[in-house]
Design a protein that fits this description.
Radius of gyration: 55 Å
Keywords: Membrane, Transmembrane, Transmembrane helix
Distance between the termini: 89 Å
Order of helices and strands: HHHEEEEHEEHEHHHHEEHEE
Strand order of the largest sheet: 2-1-3-7
Number of strands: 11
Protein name: General secretion pathway protein L
Organism: Hephaestia caeni
Transmembrane segments: 196-214
Number of domains: 4
Largest sheet: 4 strands, mixed
Strand content: 15-25%
Structural class: alpha+beta
């Protein structure tokens, strides 16, 4: 199938393609079931034998009635085996749908009928010595006979779900001409409520999905509304947080400056370090170093005391200023660098 053919197809053709695809998909799913379950759906149908242009009830039919089928009834039509011709062949293992297609394609060469004059049906009847192959029974129903059956079904106004070959309808996988007659357009396909049910289910799924999406959108809108209502409070909180951060930064900066520029603290450390009896006359502080001058008792070492305190480094005698000796003590002039901790 070319893309041009797909683009040029009308809606009816596309609908037939979709329906065919769905039937193929359902057939593939049916192959996953045991044969007894796949064909259990024939139970409950009225069984009627086609003979002399009429449908005659079968004694052991599920819903057979002595007065014949009633209009609209879903039935299984039984065809005499003498009306058809069958043979058994070997073919590769296929599913039922592909087996029917193979039979339709090869039927003219396998059965002694002119081309286009038969309705072909096939069924698997068993396995062979080769595990890759199966035994297949293929049967042909003359087209004229198929037309008479279709006319009889139409006159009776029944729905033919199955068209079996006599003495074969009880098999696990019976010969059934109904699919081929559907394809040939001789009988209408049985209507089923399944597509309508699935359509309703799909509608409910779409509606539920739409409701879930709508509820989610409404929840998001309510959340956005709450956020908008709380925006002034959030702005105030952000302002407070920003100002608190600024205060913390200012406090940290002030503490750092106080730690690095503590002139009074330096004077207190020097007062603790110098020996008793010494007194300061002058204290010079520039942030990183100090210079002290004053008087000390005889035989005391101001520089040594400063070094031993551990708070000063590079302690040295300056002697930049000349100080007069007084009876109170000897003059000193010392410079030192403040040790950072």
């Amino acid at each position: 199938m070319s893309s041009k053919r797909i683009l040029n197809a009308d809606m009816a053709t596309i609908g037939r393609w979709i329906a065919s695809g769905i039937r193929w998909w359902v057939a593939e799913l049916e192959q996953l079931l045991p044969a007894r379950l796949r064909h259990a759906r024939s139970d409950g149908l009225g069984h009627y034998r086609f003979a002399d242009g009429a449908l005659t009830p079968v004694a052991n039919g599920q819903k057979g009635a002595s007065d014949g089928p009633h209009p609209g009834e879903r039935v299984a039509v039984i065809v005499s085996r003498s009306e058809s011709l069958a043979r058994v062949i070997e073919r590769p293992a296929l599913n039922d749908r592909d087996l029917q297609r193979m039979a339709s394609f090869e039927g003219d060469g396998l059965l002694p009928f002119p081309s286009g004059t038969t309705i072909i049906a096939a069924r698997r009847v068993g396995s062979t010595a080769d595990p890759a192959k199966i035994r297949v029974e293929i049967a042909g129903l003359p087209l004229e006979t198929a037309r008479r059956i279709a006319e009889t079904i139409a006159d009776a106004k029944v729905v033919a779900v199955r068209i079996f070959v006599e003495n074969n309808r009880t098999a696990a996988s019976p010969l059934d001409f109904a699919p081929a007659m559907h394809e040939a357009g001789l009988i209408a396909r049985p209507r089923s409520a399944t597509p309508l049910i699935w359509a309703v289910v799909a509608c409910f799924v779409v509606i539920n999905t739409g409701l879930f999406i709508w509820k989610d959108v409404r929840s998001v809108e309510r959340l956005e509304q709450v956020v908008q209502e709380q925006q002034p409070v959030v702005t105030v909180a952000k302002t407070i947080t920003r100002r608190t951060g600024q205060d913390h930064t200012l406090v940290a900066r002030s503490l750092a400056k106080r730690r690095d520029h503590d002139a009074i603290g330096g004077l207190a450390v020097i007062s603790e370090a110098i020996p008793q009896g010494a007194w300061l006359q002058r204290y010079v502080w520039d942030g990183t170093s100090v210079k002290i001058t004053g008087y000390k008792p005889p035989r005391t070492d101001i520089a040594g005391e400063l070094r031993r305190s551990g708070n000063f480094a590079d302690v040295r005698a300056m002697n930049d200023e000349i100080q007069a000796e007084v009876p109170a003590g000897e003059p000193f002039d010392i410079g030192a660098r403040i040790a950072r901790r």
